[in-house]
Specification:
Blueprint: E1 11-15, H1 16-20, H2 23-42, H3 55-70, E2 74-81, E3 84-93, E4 102-110, H4 119-133, E5 138-144, H5 148-156, E6 160-171, E7 174-184
Parallel strand pairs: 4-5
Antiparallel strand pairs: 1-2, 2-3, 3-4, 5-7, 6-7
Length: 189
């Protein structure tokens, strides 16, 4: 699912199976994904790590996600400008049997050097469509309360806030709200 950007290179979005079908690109992607995630976390991004993840941790995460995609339990999207990975995102179905029709949008990560070019929006929109196609009824996510850009993006794509835990996220001495959002496909066309 290609999408245009403001720059000269075309943004290409690959799903996990397309990525896995290109072994050379897939091999490079692990290192590039680690670089993006480590740089974002080192800069204070709220991606679930306090310290930047190790390369092996990112590789294991990607391998688990590809397996979950093959089982129909997840979607993974990778964004490329030319040969360079510039963003990734994924959702996973909830594991509990009573929650199986639902999924959690767990991460959207974009190379900090190219924020503002619509890559996060393109990734999120593709993952929303993947969820809709997979029969997900409710797609949820949580975000740190100070991440106003992400919260604005999610709202613009139809997510609504359904809860907030004040001062729940602890990063050293700082505290942030944890904001819960949802996109209910049962109520949206």
């Amino acid at each position: 699912m290609p999408a245009a950007t403001d720059g000269p290179e075309e943004l290409i979005l690959l799903d996990a199976l397309e990525l896995a079908s290109e072994p050379e690109r897939a091999a490079r992607s692990g290192a590039q994904a680690h670089r993006i995630l480590a740089e974002l976390v080192a800069g204070g991004a709220a991606l679930g790590w306090v310290e930047p993840p190790a390369p092996e941790e990112v590789t294991e995460l990607l391998e688990r996600l590809v397996a979950a995609v093959r089982a129909g339990d997840a979607a993974l999207r990778a964004a490329y400008l030319g040969p360079r990975l510039v963003g990734l995102g994924y959702w996973q179905r909830y594991a509990r049997p009573t929650h199986r029709p639902h999924a959690d949008l767990e991460k959207i990560a974009v190379d900090p050097g190219i924020h503002g070019r619509g890559i996060g929006r393109a990734l999120t929109a593709a993952l929303i469509e993947d969820a809709r196609t997979a029969g997900i009824e409710v797609l949820t996510l949580d975000a740190r309360g100070d991440n106003e850009r992400a919260l604005g993006l999610y709202a613009s794509l139809g997510f609504t806030e359904y809860g907030r835990l004040p001062d729940f996220v602890a990063v050293g001495e700082r505290r942030y709200d944890k904001v819960f959002c949802m996109l209910d496909f049962r109520r949206t066309p």
